[in-house]
Amino acid sequence: MKKIVIAVTIFTMLIASSASFAGDIIGRHDLSGQRGMIIVNSVKGNKLAFDAIYSPIRGKLVILTDAFADYDSRTQKAVYSEDRSCPEALKLLFQSNGRVILHEAACAEF
Q1: Which of 44, 51, 53, 78 can bridge 69 by disulfide, Cβ–Cβ 3.0-4.6 Å?
Q2: Per-domain residue ranges of the chain
Q3: In this structure, are residues 64 and 51 in contact, taking their beta carbons and an 8 Å threshold?
Q4: In this predicted model, what pLDDT tens digit does every residue of 30-52 receive, in sequence order?
Q5: What is the full DSSP assignment across 21-51?
């Protein structure tokens, strides 16, 4: 009986660990260049809910909470738009090494 419980436990852990490495981006990601972090709260369809804390090149600290971005799971790219005057304020590219490349548009005013 103990062998069955141990086998089921190991099998469950293997399934859970393989699922977390199968391209699942929910969780914390560091920005390239050690400029901050992105926390992905959920992905539903093509909508990605995230929080971002980062320091852009201009030098001021930017904190976005409960933000939503359009997400393409094939390319692992997300685009955050503030309003119609700046349709691609932030572009996020999620890499397989757990880092995110962030590109801030010139029109973005955070």
Answers
A1: 78
A2: 25-104
A3: yes
A4: 998 778 999 999 999 999 999 99
A5: TSS---EEEEEGGG-EEEEEEEEETTEEEEE
Q: Residue 1 has which token pair?
A: 């009986």
92 closest CA partner among 68, 66, 110, 63: 68
The helices-and-strands tally (H runs, E runs) of the chain is: 1, 7
Nearest alpha-carbon partner for 49 in 88, 73, 78: 78
Closest CA to 85 of 107, 110, 67: 107
- pTM for the whole thing? 0.72
Chain-centre distance for alpha carbon 7: 33
Distance CA 58, CA 68 (A): 23
Distance CA 83, CA 62 (A): 17
